[in-house]
Amino acid sequence: MTSALNTIEIRHELPAGIQAARVNPGNSTSVRVVLLAGLLAAPLPLGGVLPWAWGGLAVLAVVLLILWGRQQVKGRRVKIAWSPLYLPCTFFLTLAAVQFYSGHNMDRISSREALIKLATDVLLFFAAVQVFSEATKSAWRRFVAVVTVFMFALSVLAIIQYFSSGGLIYWEVQTASMSPFGPYANRNHYPGLMEMLIPIAAAFRVERRLPRPAR
Amino acid sequence: MKFETVKEFSSAARRRLIRVFSPAGIEFELKTKIDACVFLAALALAGLPLLYIGGKAAAAETLANSENSLWLVRAIGLDPSHPALHFRLGVLQLFSLEKADSAMAIEHLRKAAELSPNSGPYWLGVAAALESRGETRAAQDAFHHALERRPMSPDYWWRAGNFYLRAGQNEAAWNHFRRVLELSPTRSEPVFRLCLRAAGDFRLVSEHVMPLDASPGLVLAYVDFLRRCGEYDDAFKMWRQFESKASKTKITFPTVQPYIDGLIAGNRVNEAISVWRDLLKWQVIARPTSPSPDNAVFNGDLEQAPLNAGFDWRLTQMPFVVTDSQAPAAFHGAKSARVDFTVKHNEEYEILYQLVPVEPCREYRLEAFVRSEGITSDSGPRLRIVDAESPERLNISTPPVLGTTDWHPVGLTFSAGRDTRLVRLAVWRARSRVFPMEISGRFWLDAVSLVVTGPHSGMDSTRQVCMQ
Question: Is residue A12 part of a domain?
Answer without folding.
Answer: no
